Structure formats: C-alpha cells, structure tokens
Amino acid sequence: MxxxxxxxxxxxxxxxxxADQQLNLLGRGRSFLHLGIYLSQxxxxxxxPLVLVRQASGSERAxxxxxxxxxxxxxxxxxxxxxxxxxxLILGALRADLAPAQSWDAEIDQTxxxxxxxxxHGLGRDLxxxxxxxxxxxxxxxxxTLIHQLRNPLSALRTxxxxxxxxxxxxxxxxxxxxxxxxxxxxxxxxxxALDNIGQPVLAGQQQPVSPLMxxxxxxxxxxxxxxxxxxxxxxxxxxxTLQGRPWxxxxxxxxxxxxxxxxxxxxxxxxxxxxxAFRYSPAGCPIGLTLLPDGLVVWDGGPPIDxxxxxxxxxxxxxxxxxxxxxxxxxxxxxxxxxxxxxxxxLQLHVQPSRLQAQxxxxxxxxxxxxxxxxxEG
Length: 379
Prior knowledge:
Layout: E1 2-3, H1 13-27, E2 32-40, E3 50-57, E4 79-86, E5 89-98, H2 106-167, H3 175-197, H4 226-244, E6 248-249, H5 256-260, H6 265-281, E7 288-293, E8 296-301, H7 333-343, E9 347-351, E10 366-371
Helix pairs in contact: 1-2, 2-3, 4-6, 6-7
C-alpha cells in the first residue's frame, strides 16, 4: 500500500504522481516490505540528510527520514539502496526492502536500477523546473519593486512640469516644450502600467487583448488620425536632432490620407522604433528624416548603408548589426516593427538608395519604408 510521509520537500505534483506510479509498478507481483524515495536535503554540516518523499509499503508503518529511522542502524541483507543521480550530482536514493521470505536475483536488481534511472531523470527535470520558477518569481519581484520606485520620481517630475506650465503665458515660446514634457511623462506612465501588468495572473477563460504598448504621447487611439499620432513623434525627433546637432527633415505638408486615415497604435509604435534606431545607430552629424509617401512613409538617414550580409538579419529578434555592437540595446526594435507592420497587412523594407523612393532623399543611406494596404472599398 502507498503511504505519504508528512511534510515532504517541495516538489511538483506532477513528479510526486510519477513517483507514486513508479513505486506501485515495482510492487506489482513482488514481495517488497518497503519501497521508498529519499531526497537529499541541504544541511549546515556533515552528511546531508535523506528525507523521505514517497513510499510504498507492505505494512502500515510510515518511514521516517533516513537519519532517524532506527531500522537503518542495523545491517540487513534484504535492503538495498540505489542512487538517484543526475550527472555527477546525487539527488537522493531509492530504497528497496525485500520481504523476509524473498531473496535477491538479477532480474529484481536490474528492474530497480531501471526504475532508479527513470526517477532520477524525472527528479532532475523537476528540480530544474522549480529553480526556473523561483528565478522567474525573483525577477518578477524585482520588476515590481523597480516599478514602484519609478513612480515616485515620475510623479514629482509631472508636478514640477505642471507648476512651470502655470507660470508661462499662453503665448510663451516655451509652452510647447513643457507640454511635450508632460506628454512624454504620460507615455512613461503607460509603459510602467504595461510593465506592471506583466506576469499578473489571468483568470481561466479570460484572454488578455494584444495591443501595441508604445503609443505616442498626447493622442487617444480610436479617435486620432495618423497625423495626430505622428505629430508628437516628429516633434520629439526634431528636438533630438537639435540636441545632437544634426540635420532633421520632416514633412512640410501632410497629404490628405494623413488626416483622413484613422490612426492606430501599431503605426505609431513602428515609427517610434524606426526613429529611435536612426538616432542611435547612424553616425553623428548625418541627416535623419521622415518622409510621407503616397502609400506609406519612410524613415531614413544619410549614413553608410547597412552591410549587405546584415540587411535581412537585422529584422530578426535579438540580432544587431556590427555598428551597434558597442551600444546598449536588445535587437528587438526592427523585429517588432516589421512584425507589427505585417500583422496589420503592411510591410517594412530596407532600401539603401533612398533617392529611389523620392528624389529629394540622399543617394545613399538607410531608408526603412513602411507600406500599408489600400483601405477596403465601401460597398
């Protein structure tokens, strides 16, 4: 019969069910007095104790841990131990006590060795799973702590910006700058709220909607046009170019589709990623711009063209070009941008001769063209 010992070490229910199954299979048609699975536990010194985690016994006696079992102090020909081993690491032991009238033979010994090997493999994977789960829990706790610590200084910055805005006249040339600061702070709050939702449990039967996270500041998706969504990004890029001392070329006029086409967060997120990449990876002083096309838009720079052997791989997750190896980054920006474009029926392509897209653009450089499908005709 199977007897569960009290307070077993922490293991998954899946492994414990597997262990019970293995012990019950061993006991079928064989006369074992006791079968037990012991797990090595850490200790302050000396030999690590073997704690019983599962047993199948022909008696009602629940086995204690190996170091407190009085029967183990006496030698017995009816008892054998089989190590539970994962590589060079000893995880525990399988104990088998034959009934007094039984004797050991090669078949029983080999069966127990095979069982110990199966339990060893399952136990090793189970412990790896538990370690990974603990590491993920630790990371989640660190993330939640960081999010909490970020909210206070961001709230203080917002308060300072609001006070500064009240002191400025409506006609002040500095109002757009302070309003931009407030919009960026709202964007940071959206990022933090999105991070705060990562790892939160989802109730059974519920589905979390998948939507872009990096929406531009200042606009409400759903009511906004593409011009509404892109304008804050263009203003941000113009300010960044001024700080870096490089030429910037944005759209002088907006085509009709910019004010007619309904905005979506995906397009704004794509453009945000493309602009960030252009400012981060293009050489200092080279021009950067955003140009509107009849069927899309292009974010370009006038730097050296990306090497031919990297022009496809830069769209893969975790891949970064050689010129960005020394800079901080994750290699996700372009991969995410293309994925969002294709998920919405469009595409994102690299051109190293921007002037072929529009004559006013540089003859050489890197132009990322975002195109989208024609809107469906109304019936």
